Amino acid sequence: MASHPPATRAPGPIDRDTRICLSLSARPSNIGTRFHNFLYAELGLNYLYKATTTTDIGAAVAGLRALQIRGCGVSMPFKEDCLDHVDVVHDSAAVIASANTIVNEDGVLHAHNTDYQAVRDLLASPGLPTTGRVVVTGSGGMAKAVVAALRDAGFTDGVLAARNPRSGPALANAYGYEWVGSPADLGGDHSAALLVNVTPVGMSGAAAAGESPYDDTQVAAAQAVLDVVAVPSETPLIRAARAHGKPVVTGAQVIALQAAEQFRLYTGVRPSADQVARASAYSREGAT
Known about the structure:
By secondary structure, this protein is α/β, with parallel strands linked by helices.
C-alpha cells in the first residue's frame, strides 16, 4: 500500500481562528475528512474538516450559520431538502434542484452543486463515447446532477431506471428520457453507449454491497461504464466492466473532482492536479 504523510495540522495546532468545515450524510465516511484535512496540511491552511450526520436537516443547516461553520458538503439523502434552508441557490444547484455544497459567506448560506461539473468533466475522458444511448439507474439528488451533465454532454437518447414511481418519471420527463422501473425492464435490448449507476448498489455497507445494478449481458453490450459509488472504487459493476475490457469512470474519480471544487469554494485555494491525486489516494486508504 502506498505511503502518505499523515494529515496532521499545519503549521500549528487548532486554535480560535481555525475555520471548520463539515459534511452531512446518512452514512458518514472518512473519505472527505481525509481528503480535505490532507490538503489543509499540505497547504498549511488553518482549517479542520469533520464528517457527521443528522436527523434534522433544517436544524443542521441553521447550525452552520449559528456556529460560523465555513462550509458543508451535503450527501444523500439531504441534497434536495437542504435547499429549503439556505439563502442563495447558485445556478449549478438551481437547475437541478439539488445541492452538494453549502458555503457560509459571513452568515449568508450559498448552495452549489459540484457533482455536476465533476461528471461533466469526466465524460470527456479518453475512450468514453460522446453520443449514443445511455442508461442511468437512480433518481435522487446525485442522479439529477448526473443526468443534467449527460444531457449537456450530448447524450440525448436516454433511459432512466428508477424504482421510485414519483421521482423516476419526473426526472426522466425533465430531460426527455424514457423511464423504466429497473434495468431488468429493458427487455432484450441490451445496447447502450454508456451504463451509469447512481444508486447505492455496490456500496460498502449497503444492503446490496456485493451486487451490480446491471447484469453481465448488459455490461458486455455497453461501450463504457460510469459508477458514482466511491467506496469501494472497484465496485462489482466496475469489476465486470473491466473484465469485459470496457472504459470506466469510477466513483473515486467523481468524488475527487467534486471535492477539489468544494475545497476551492471553502478556502479560495485551487489545489494542483498532483495534490488532488495524492489527497484522493490518501482518502481511499481510510475509506470506512
